[in-house]
Amino acid sequence: MEGHDPQHTNVNAGVTLPPTPAIRWYRALGLGGIWVSPVTEDGIVYVSSHDGYLYALDAPTGRRLWRFRGGGACAAPAVVDGAVYLSSVYLNGDGSLYALDPTTGRLLWEYGLGHNSCWQLLAVVDGAIYAGESPTEGDGRIYALDRTTRELIWTFETENNILHCLTTDNGTVYVSSEEQPPYGLPENARLYALDAQDGHQMWEFEIEEEWTYHGACPVLSGGLLYIGSSGRYEQGNWLSPYLYAVDATTGEVRWRFHAEDEAVETWSFLSPAVTDGIAYVVARKTTVPGTDDFERWSTVYALDAFTGDVLWSSQVNSGYGVIQFPPTVAGGQVYVGTELGWVAAFDAVTSEQVWELNVGNGNHIGNSPVVVDGAMYVVSVNQIYAIGSPTNGDGKLWWPCGGALVVAWGMMILILKLAAWITQSRLGVL
Q1: How far apart are the C-alpha atoms of 118 and 283, rounded to whole Å?
Q2: What is the pLDDT of residues 140-152, one digit of tens each?
Q3: Which residues pair with 385 in a beta bridge?
C-alpha cells in the first residue's frame, strides 16, 4: 500500500538495509514513465506504469511474473486479502477499478467509472474500497464501494476538482484536494474528514495562504494529521508555506512549522514520515530569484510531532538535485530520493548522512523509496531498482532475466569478434 499503511506514515520500522547497500537488480518496464511507488506483498513487487500495464515482479530477482493491461496508472495498487486493486485511466479518458488475482494477474472483476475521470485515490479498509474521482471538468468525488458486492455505499462531492491521497483510520476517511484553474497555480486547498460509514462531512480545513503541493497526502499519527503546503507569489509578495499539524477529531490546527532562512525561499513542504513522536519532513528551498548564485536544494527536518519544535536538520547535497517526494523511515534511517537519481540515507537520531547511491543515471527518482524484507525499491523514469545486499550468496550480482540475456548476447558478440580477429591475423589479412 502506498505510504506503507492506510495512515500513510511512510514508516516500516522493523526493516533494515545493509550498511553499504548496492543495486541487486534493475529492470526496464515498457516505454511509459512510473510515477507511483511500487507495492510489495508476499515476495511480489507490483509496479503501475503509464505504458498501460501493471507489472508483477519476483522480489528477489526482478523476473516478470505477469502483467495486466488496464490503462495508465492513477494511483499505486493496493494488495489486500488475496486481491490486487488497481485504478487506471485509458487515453480516451475512461477510468476503471480492477481486482486481480495476485499470483496470476487474472481479472476478478472490473468497476467502470465513466468518461473523463480517473480513480486518483485508492484505499481498501474493513470491507470497503474508498476511491476518488478527479474529472477534467466539475468537482471531485469520493466513492465508497462494498468490497464483496461492489455496490455503491455512498459518494461525497468536494469543492475542488483535483484530489490527492486518501488516509483512513478509526472509521474516518481523510482526503486533501485543491482547485486547478485553466491557467495558473492550484488554489483553494482543503482537507476533509468524512464518516466512513455514510460519507457525511465531519469537518473541513482550508489552507488560506498557500496551496497544497501536488500529490501531498495527509499523514495520520498520534491523533494528528500532518500535511505540507507550497508557497506562492501574490501581488509581489512571497507567501511562505507551512507544515500543518491538525487535530484529527476537530480539524483545528495544533501547530504549524515555517522554515525561516535569510535570502532563502522555502518552495514547499512534502508529506512527512511520522514515527516515535518525530515527524521527518523535506523542505524544498531556493535562493531568492534575482540574487547571485541562484540554486535549489532540499533540507530534511526532524520535528517534535506534538509541538513542531526542530530536533535537527540536514541539508541534502545540492548536486543531487531537489527531493521531489516524501521521505521513508525504516530501521532507524531516513531515506530520500532526488531528481538527479540519488538515494540518500540519514541517521534518524543524529542527522548524519550514512550513505548515498546513484541509481537513476541522472534521471529523477519517481516516488518515495519503499523498504521491505531487507531491500529498497525505487523507480526512475521507466525502470525499477532493487537495492540491498549485492549478492545471492555466491558472489554474483542478482540480474533479472532480461539483463542476463543482454549480458550473454554481448559476451557472445565479443567472442565472435575476437575469433574473427585471430583468424584474420593468422591469414595475414591484418
Answers
A1: 29
A2: 788 899 988 989 9
A3: 26, 378
What gap in Å lies between CA 30 and CA 49, rounded to an integer? Answer: 8
What's the CA gap between 154 and 279, in Å, rounded?
33
Length of the chain: 430
- Work out whether strand 22-28 and strand 383-388 pair parallel, antiparallel, or are unpaired: antiparallel
What is the side-by-side strand order in the sheet with 172-179?
Answer: 162-169, 172-179, 187-195, 201-207
The two counts, helices (H) then strands (E), for the chain are: 1, 36
Can you read off the three cell numbers belonging to residue 162? 483535483
Measured CA angle at 80 (ends 398, 330), to 5 deg: 50
Q: Which amino acid is at 174?
A: Y
**Gap between the Cα atoms of 357 and 369, Å rounded:** 13
Which CA distances in Å does 148 have to 41, 75, 127?
21, 21, 7
Contact 46, 40 (CB under 8 A): yes
Q: Which superfamily is assigned to 22-399 in CATH?
A: YVTN repeat-like/Quinoprotein amine dehydrogenase (2.130.10.10)
H or E element in which residue 68 lies? strand 64-69
C-alpha–C-alpha distance, residues 9 and 281, integer Å = 11
Phi, psi of 408 (to 5 degrees): -60, -45
Torsion angle in degrees (nearest 10) through CA of 273, 231, 122, 9:
10
Residue 240: CB partners within 8 Å, gap ≥ 6? 210, 231, 258, 260, 265, 266
Only one residue has cell 507567501, namely: 239
Q: Is 404 helix (H, G, I), strand (E, B) or coil?
A: helix
The C-alpha cell 501531498 sits at: 216
* SS3 call for 279: strand
Could you tell me the three cell numbers for 289?
Answer: 530569484
Question: Helices in 157-226 by DSSP H: which ranges?
Answer: none
Could you tell me the three cell numbers for 399? 540480474
Domain edges within the chain? 22-399
Q: For residue range 293-346, list pLDDT tens digits in order.
A: 667 778 899 999 999 999 999 988 878 888 888 899 999 999 999 988 899 999
Amino acid at 154: W
Banded model confidence at residue 425, pLDDT cuts 50, 70, 90: very low
Q: Is the pLDDT of residue 161 over 50?
A: yes
Structural contact between residues 48 and 36, judged by C-beta atoms closer than 8 angstroms: yes
Give rounded-to-5 percent helix, strand, coil for the chain: 5, 50, 45
